[in-house]
């Protein structure tokens, strides 16, 4: 009997769904900022950005498909305790510590700042985010079809708007590309690689990958190898769309410096470039689409984290957990977008190497017989470096930690954890082989 597979039409449909799942409004702010800072090194930097911002999410989906489970099942390969700890850390990162507050900050930066001027920004941000997260909380109590329908129409509208913006930017560049800023002069590829962490799509894929796998199973594709194979196909479709968006927006950022100057964050850059290329009408359309897109993302993330907490702490009522999430996100969002990004980076520097190790080792686990000791050794090796690197990024014990870690190969490139993670895996395999 022939095994069930997806038709080309079904593959494209799920690929586009995956594209929409990853293309959050927050993701639009990082490529323009990278473009401004990378300058003439923009193409090298954006390729590094694509590795972590596009390639890793695709591999994460494949890893989830291959494991036949979710993030907790993947994390359990290290140990049961890690299976409880790491998913919680990931949910906190994509939830109230950064992911959810970012929706409010981006919505304000693009949806309100262009019309409010320079005065009383702190008060206006508070009022805006209070309303934004109040509505998010209300909708999260009953995530009706309204939210999914809005998402269904918003993604095409956002893609059309970005296409018009990109074509205008390529045909009529805003200005000339400047020299790269500090940080992009020596290792632009690896600087872009680290900037890709900010999209959070790789760790989000570990959480939401089950959604993509479920859609395949709804079409009758249940054989694990076939699910993993088709996950690659739909991932390539989604990844191609994301790559085009990131290339276009980074180019717009790179060509904007001579006309608008260096700006604090990508939200301000995107607004300024839109005004120059599309006029006030373009800015209004961009503001409307992105605010609603941020709102639907906020509702989705609050609901997802609320459901997660309901599983791990079933005695706490769902309205209470979602209310606490929304309130904490409101407080975090009032740091402002630039400060929020700076706050989140150390945490992502700590988490991402561990996530990368998990993804890679799930994909190659046949080589080492799926031994838990190998996973454990690799994760410990990565964490021993990524955690101090996060502290360095946060400015905590930066000098002594840097002097110690600088002896590691690739440390200056931001991937000093690679050799220790590999060594940890080898040590784990050796000890497991001795038993």
TrEMBL record:
A single cellular component GO annotation: plasma membrane
Q: Which residues form the signal peptide?
A: none
For this UniProt entry, which segments traverse the membrane? 12-30, 42-66, 78-100, 120-141, 153-174, 194-213, 234-254, 283-306, 318-337, 343-365, 377-398, 410-431
- Its GO biological process terms? isoleucine transport; L-leucine transport
Give a yes or no for keyword Ribosomal protein in this entry: no
Record keywords, A-Z: Amino-acid transport, Cell membrane, Membrane, Transmembrane, Transmembrane helix, Transport
The protein's predominant localisation is membrane
The subcellular location is: Cell membrane
Per the record, membrane topology reads: Multi-pass membrane protein
Listed GO MF terms: L-isoleucine transmembrane transporter activity; L-leucine transmembrane transporter activity; L-valine transmembrane transporter activity
Q: What does this protein do?
A: Component of the transport system for branched-chain amino acids.
Protein family membership: Belongs to the branched chain amino acid transporter family.
What name does this protein carry? Branched-chain amino acid transport system carrier protein
Q: Which organism is it from?
A: Alteribacter keqinensis
Question: What lineage does UniProt assign to this protein's organism?
Answer: Bacteria, Bacillati, Bacillota, Bacilli, Bacillales
